[in-house]
Each structure stands twice: as C-alpha cells, then as structure tokens.
Amino acid sequence: MVRERQFKKWKRSWKIELIEEMNPNWSDLSMNWKLNYNRLRK
Length: 42
Prior knowledge:
mainly alpha; flat
C-alpha cells in the first residue's frame, strides 16, 4: 500500500519508463494469475 502511494506521486513518464524497463512488450502479466473470479465475488 505504501509503495502504491509512492507510485501515484510519480510523473506519468516515469511510470511508463519503469514499465518498459520491466516489460518492454507490454505483455499482459495477468494471464498467468489463475484467479477464481467466482470465489472473489463473495
């Protein structure tokens, strides 16, 4: 939560630079999460 607040204060260009450094193809990382959405809705 603290880290999220830090990111919110960053300029958009800094965020994009960080994303491109870690994930240059902008791949959807959530594809591997295997979440059970029915369970989350409860």
